[in-house]
């Protein structure tokens, strides 16, 4: 560590101590400032976007749960030259892939772009916790990958989630993914905004392809749980593209039917000791709508004895004290917050705002249009809200926080990074945020969470 770096760290420590001393229980607005370098997308010829060698080689390989608990896994990939073979073979060793499944395929047009052949194939009859090898591309170029099926859901099953949002495909995005890989999670909860292809004229869909090649190094080997963000809408009536979520839903599958949902954009999975509910900020959620009805039914299905940790994913945050996207999540908060507090949700993860923020347990459900109780209040039944839209995309950092920091905000910082959530047992989980400017193992913000159902103590201290 150089003298300048030591000095900077010392100044940071002094500033944090001073902030704590002068403000008591006030939250922290971290004085850390990331270097202000350009946030540019990696060029198409970057090595992370390399097309795998071999004729018609499967590319953009990614997996996600194929049922609610991971005894099925859906494998997706793209072939560029011709349709090729839709079969996936799989088994517990690379020499023994004796099971097989037949996939389906789709293509789509987007203005002047035509996709490759997009394959989806669900591998079934998997055993929890068993490592499987899988291969596809038979007849042309075969590629082999592996994953471990998630452990059987139960009350005390340790599991480590990576939490990533708004990733994009810049050099910072690459740093975020590398940091996550070094931290070694078992699955990713992705809170929306994948490729940012829509940042380009005509929503250059080649950027959907390059993004999928970029993240293959992780998502071909462990399931990522997808949430739809605004950059998945690709709604562009000015060029005749009026089907919302077209590229996203053609390319990415979710196990929504297994969750009793009628749309791929809202659903649930049960992984280890967690029941994870995925919501769509950009679909109807008003009273009587399909998402409203599904969520009402889904919360009644949650069994905290079987899966103690209740986690909700969405894209647009409800508690965000950054001036970017300020209050955009407000209508959904008004609609659903009372349900989540009543259900004692442990943690709500969102993205959208390109910085990092963690809340204390606060709620704002007492208000009606005559009682004047409009201010969020401490509430140990309320979730912790984490905004983790700091994956590093082309739009850059959101470095404009509101002042003063509201009392619900525990920690906020305008840096790129990712977080991890390590569930230890039914009562304790360790949450940590990692900024990209630190070494991969360093934590910039961390907290031990206690479970709202099994040990609802004040875990904000
Ligand atoms: Fe967003």
Automatic annotation (TrEMBL):
Domain Purple acid phosphatase C-terminal: 382-439
GO molecular-function term, one example from the UniProt record: acid phosphatase activity
Its EC number(s): 3.1.3.2
Signal peptide as annotated in the record: 1-21
Domain Calcineurin-like phosphoesterase: 160-356
Iron is among the record's keywords: yes
Key words, A-Z: Glycoprotein, Hydrolase, Iron, Metal-binding, Signal, Zinc
GO biological process annotation, one example: cellular response to phosphate starvation
Family per record: Belongs to the metallophosphoesterase superfamily. Purple acid phosphatase family.
Protein name: Purple acid phosphatase
Catalytic activity: a phosphate monoester + H2O = an alcohol + phosphate
Source species: Triticum aestivum (Wheat)
Gene Ontology CC, one term: plant-type cell wall
InterPro entries according to UniProt: Calcineurin-like_PHP (IPR004843), Metallo-depent_PP-like (IPR029052), MPP_PAP (IPR041792), PAPs-like (IPR039331), PAPs_C (IPR025733), PAPs_N (IPR015914), Purple_acid_Pase-like_N (IPR008963)
One Pfam family in the UniProt entry: Metallophos_C
Residue span, Purple acid phosphatase N-terminal domain: 58-148
């Amino acid at each position: 560590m150089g003298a300048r770096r030591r000095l900077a760290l010392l100044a940071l420590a002094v500033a944090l101590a001073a902030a704590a001393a002068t403000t008591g229980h006030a939250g922290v607005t971290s004085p850390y400032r990331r270097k202000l370098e350009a946030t540019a997308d990696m060029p198409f010829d970057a090595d992370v976007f390399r097309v795998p060698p071999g004729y018609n080689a499967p590319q953009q390989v990614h997996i996600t749960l194929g049922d609610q608990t991971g005894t099925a896994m859906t494998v997706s990939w793209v072939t560029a030259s011709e349709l090729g073979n839709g079969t996936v073979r799989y088994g517990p060793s690379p020499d023994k892939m004796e099971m097989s499944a037949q996939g389906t395929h789709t293509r789509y047009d987007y203005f002047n772009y035509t996709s490759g052949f997009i394959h989806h194939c669900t591998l079934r009859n998997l055993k929890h916790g068993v490592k499987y090898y899988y291969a596809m591309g038979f007849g042309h170029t075969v590629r082999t990958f592996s994953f471990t099926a998630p452990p059987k859901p139960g009350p005390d099953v340790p599991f480590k989630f990576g939490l990533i949002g708004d990733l994009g495909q810049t050099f910072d995005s690459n740093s975020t993914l590398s940091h996550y890989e070094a931290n070694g999670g078992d699955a990713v909860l992705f809170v929306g905004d994948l490729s940012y292809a829509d940042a380009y004229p005509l929503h250059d869909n080649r950027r959907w392809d390059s993004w999928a090649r970029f993240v293959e190094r992780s998502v071909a080997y462990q399931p990522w749980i997808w949430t739809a963000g605004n950059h998945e809408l690709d709604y562009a009536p000015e060029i005749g593209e009026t089907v919302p979520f077209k590229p996203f839903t053609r390319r990415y599958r979710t196990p929504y039917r297994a969750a009793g949902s009628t749309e791929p954009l809202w659903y649930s999975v049960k992984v280890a000791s967690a029941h994870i509910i995925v919501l769509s900020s950009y679909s109807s959620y008003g009273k009587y709508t399909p998402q409203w009805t599904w969520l009402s039914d889904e919360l009644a299905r949650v069994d905290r004895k079987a899966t103690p940790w209740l986690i909700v994913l969405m894209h647009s945050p409800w508690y965000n004290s950054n001036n970017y996207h300020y209050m955009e999540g407000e209508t959904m908060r008004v609609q659903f917050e009372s349900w989540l507090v009543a259900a004692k949700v442990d943690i709500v993860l969102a993205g959208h705002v390109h910085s990092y923020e963690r809340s204390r347990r606060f709620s704002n459900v007492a208000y009606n249009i005559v009682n004047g109780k409009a201010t969020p209040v401490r509430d140990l039944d309320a979730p912790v809200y984490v905004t983790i839209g700091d994956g590093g995309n082309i739009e850059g950092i959101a470095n404009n926080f509101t002042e003063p920091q509201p009392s619900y905000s525990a920690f906020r910082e305008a840096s790129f990074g990712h977080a991890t959530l390590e569930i230890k047992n039914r009562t304790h989980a360790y949450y940590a945020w990692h900024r990209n400017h630190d070494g991969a193992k360093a934590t910039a913000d961390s907290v031990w969470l206690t479970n709202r159902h099994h040990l609802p103590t004040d875990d904000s201290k």
